Please model this.
Amino acid sequence: MSTKNPNSDAPAILMPIGDATEAMDTLYPFFRVAEDGYRAVVAGPEARLYHMVLHEVPPLSRIPWDITEERPGYHIHAEVAFRDVDPAAYAGVFISGGRAPEYLRYDKDLLRITRHFFEAGKPVAVVCHGIEIVSAAGMIRGRTVTTVAKCALDAEQGGARYVDQPVVVDGNLVTARTWHDSAPFMREFMKMLQAESPQRTRSA
Model:
């Protein structure tokens, strides 16, 4: 999937991803921000094509799963490498889940980028395993967050208070458990973005 957006004058929302980024976590916000006149910019460790995955506890498995099964998903192109990202050029950041955050949290450029959005008070949205990145960046200490239950420890080790609810807003940070919470999650993130740039409308 190509991520080039012709509306280059629109406020940009950074979407850091990597291999095994969760497809639903990523594609819903990618298209949702564009509906309100923003431009999603996908970034990765390198500017190249990445493999997305589908995470789901199989409902009809003969042998039950205690955790999500991972299956291949779509592909998505990152148009910029983390090292080349100037976070000051972006209005907000959306950090999706999947297995990708397990290795992305070690990327020093991504941690630099992530810290900028918190330090500048810009809107930050984090879903599912994305909490591993903001925790590694040291940006959730003292915050209240939600995430998928199996990442609760990552949140708490980062100094946050974990709660099991669909969406949590704490200052400039909005968190959600999984893509199943996308509708209320994106509603809150869009409110944050529009508060920062109220001139943007659905007709933009």
The first strand starts at residue 12 and ends at 16. The radius of gyration is 16 Å. The chain has a mean pLDDT of 92.
